[in-house]
Amino acid sequence: MDSWRQRARALRDELVTAGKLSSPAWQQAVLDVPRHHFVPAYYQRRPDEPGWHLVTASEDRERWWEQVYANLSLVTEIGAVPDGGRDATGPVSSSSAPGLMTRMLEMLDVQPGMRVLEIGTGTGYNAALLAHRLGDSNVFSLDVGAGLVESARQRLAELDYHPTLVTADGIAGLPEHAPYDRIIATCAVPRVPWAWAEQTRYGGLVLVDVKVSAVVGNLVLLRRDADQLTGQFDGGAATFMQMRTPTFAQHPGQKPERDRRHAQRHVTGLRLERPWEHGVLWFLLHLTVPGRIEFGYSQDPDTGGIGAMYLYSRDGSWCEVTTNADGTGQVWEAGPRPLWQTLEQVQQFWAEAGQPGWERFGLTVTANDQHVWLDNPDSPHRWPLPA
Ligand SMILES: C[S@@+](CC[C@H](N)C(=O)[O-])C[C@H]1O[C@@H](n2cnc3c(N)ncnc32)[C@H](O)[C@@H]1O
Q: Pick the catalytic residue: 93, 96, 141, 317?
């Protein structure tokens, strides 16, 4: 059986090969910090079985070893999550995929002596990587989960790492230890808290996954100037869990009853079977129609197969699209916002702009305003982030 050091070396090699890790200093951190120490157990779903299963070293040793040293995100805590206005149970903490963590740490451009604040301590693994690189006195990490912080503190101390750990709501940052050279958030936010800008030195960086709704958005690297944070989105993908804060909880609202008799009907040339799979386009739609947009398929009552693709938003707007014999789409839509027509307009803009990817978009955050822009901060193409 491989030792953990052999497994850590294999993980390091995998991340280097995948282009997610390059700097010798972060490679050394991955080699020296035992991830298994921070993830003694994790939850997984199993095909055809309800609920979450706990995988532990004692019950499923080989699987645990393999997955802990694989480039996988592992769910480490289950709790109440807002879901459709009802309280449901789901992941509330995880050890993010190591390749995502190392990619973010490299994007942060950390230099010796810098002070870093992490929002989202979770298991403490990322805090350990930071402490390995920067020393205890330069690393600050907070989490809203008191139990998570205490477990992380204990695990870090067992490896002789002693960064400053605090139980707090990350929305306020950690003013008592500011200023920081870098802030890294490992939970997603719909808007960047201005407190983070105030706690970052001029020229410092904030790296955060901005998600205007669950899985709608991406990582953005922001530089602190005198009165703003500004910077570009990252071309890669990141899917952090949303920050847990009452004011950030998002509910899709009532599912509207889709009664075609009361809908506008028109034909569309836009054929997008799964618009939610086009990340940038879906993001632009959410910037144009604020609030969470739900999606799915309804059944064809005659064939039992897929009948119509539908979208709906919290304000009661909905659309349904089926395919006509000539290949065009048949649209029904109703409610305050014509969702499909808005998608058509957004798609036309996106196509005319050359189908820009994430890296052509950026975000500027000031004390009073947050807006996304295309190509440069002064661009006429700007969208306010929904409040
Ligand atoms: C992906 S996990 C963090 C992983 C962690 N960096 C690690 O290395 O294990 C996201 C964390 O964000 C935390 N979180 C969620 N909402 C928060 C909030 N309002 N303030 C601070 N932390 C929050 C969660 O409790 C969770 O532990």
A: 96
